[in-house]
Design a protein that fits this description.
Blueprint: E1 2-5, E2 11-20, E3 27-31, E4 39-44, E5 52-54, E6 60-62, E7 68-69
């Protein structure tokens, strides 16, 4: 795992083997410890930002560059 520091000086750990496909590049899973017990969030590989959000349908959006992962569940009723 790759060690990284957040904007609030927390140490987090990026697991590059756990990736979700994004429109501009993958999102990598980020954990609060090297044991990967608690998920912190995702790292956007397109811009290197930890500033992203996931909605209830599993869509991930990077708030810095707009990289997006499509929702896990989708049908026309969700639009």
């Amino acid at each position: 795992m790759q060690e990284r520091t957040t904007e609030t000086d927390e140490t987090v750990y990026v697991e590059e083997s756990e990736a979700e496909i994004g429109s501009k590049g993958p999102f990598y899973a980020v954990y609060t410890s090297p044991e990967a017990e608690e998920r912190y969030g995702y790292l956007c590989s397109a811009c290197g930002s930890l500033n992203n959000a996931m909605d209830t349908m599993g869509r991930i959006v990077c708030n810095e560059c707009g990289n997006t992962r499509k929702p896990e569940e989708w049908d026309a009723a969700h639009e």
